[in-house]
Design brief:
Blueprint lengths: L2 E5 L2 E4 L4 E8 L7 E7 L6 E6 L5 E3 L7 E6 L4 E6 L8 E9 L2 E2 L7 E6 L1
């Protein structure tokens, strides 16, 4: 059974940084494309960053240049380094395995990121 456990969220002032982690189990992690999603109150969940099994990355325009996705295949973990945070980054952040930009395993509990102005 696939499990995704996100952590690292918190309350930070605008301009600050956070590093999110997503520990996975039950999948052959090194073969998976992984993504970070976020869902703000009243909004749809959106994909903000993707990393392929080969380490190629892609970002939503709203976070490009501020967020960095990375992975550690030895630890079955994907990370999201978030710098220069803005109040509009406030959301619950989730990770998932991705196929054609679509998530395909059960969601974890997510981790709350709140950016104060």
């Amino acid at each position: 059974q696939v499990q995704l456990v996100e952590s690292g969220g918190g309350l930070v002032q605008a301009g600050g940084s956070l590093r999110l982690s997503c520990a996975t189990s039950g999948m052959i992690f090194r073969f998976e494309t992984m993504g970070w999603y976020r869902q703000a109150p009243g909004k749809l969940r959106e994909l903000v960053a993707v990393i392929t099994s080969r380490g190629n990355t892609n970002y939503a325009n709203s976070v490009k240049g501020r967020f960095t996705i990375s992975r550690d295949n030895a630890k079955n973990t994907v990370y999201l380094q978030m710098n220069s945070l803005k109040p509009e980054d406030t959301a619950v952040y989730y990770c998932n395995a991705v196929v054609d930009t679509k998530p395909y395993v059960s969601w974890g509990q997510g981790t709350q990121v709140t950016v104060s102005s």
